[in-house]
Amino acid sequence: MYNQAAFLEERPEVLHALLRAHPLGTLIVASGGSVSADLIPFILYPDEGGHGVLRAHVARANPVWQALRDGGECLVLFQGPHAYVSPSWYASKAEHHKVVPTWNYAMVQARGTARVVEDGAWLHRALSDLTAVHEAGLPQPWQLSDAPPDFLAATMKAIVGIEIPLASLAGKWKANQNRSQADREGVVQGLRTQPAGGAMAALVQATLE
Q1: How many structural domains is the chain composed of?
Q2: Structure letter (DSSP) for residue 148
């Protein structure tokens, strides 16, 4: 990933926070002369291994797990907030007009060698953890035990687990850090006028604090 020093994010707690807030990752696998990309919800176990462990599951009918069966290296992309930035928001536009549009975003790239898991206890734990995270806060959180045992058993036979001990996590926070304070303040104001600009406005605002 091309990354400039101004946009480099290496703090584990910040990278982990993006993974938790945006857990639908793009699993990219190169195998047999082709490249596949699958959107998969992951859960991060930050205290396991050197950089944490990602766990997920896919349908047994999905060929991606077979490509990883022998311990294939893979890349998982996690996309955070992103937004178009108009040059009209920069204070410097009024001074010299030497400004152009850009796109702000935050992302994390996770790399590691995956292993395929078909163990029932592992799958049960992974499914329990995943649903517990996403059901938390709902009025009536759903649990695996709510499903009939025979239905759950059949469902688990139709999925395969994927575990990725992370070799590295790399973050890029492109939030106008290379612009002046006045320009960034203008971007914050501009983004706040956009329907979906609030999250990126907060990231740019954080560069001012």
Answers
A1: 1
A2: -
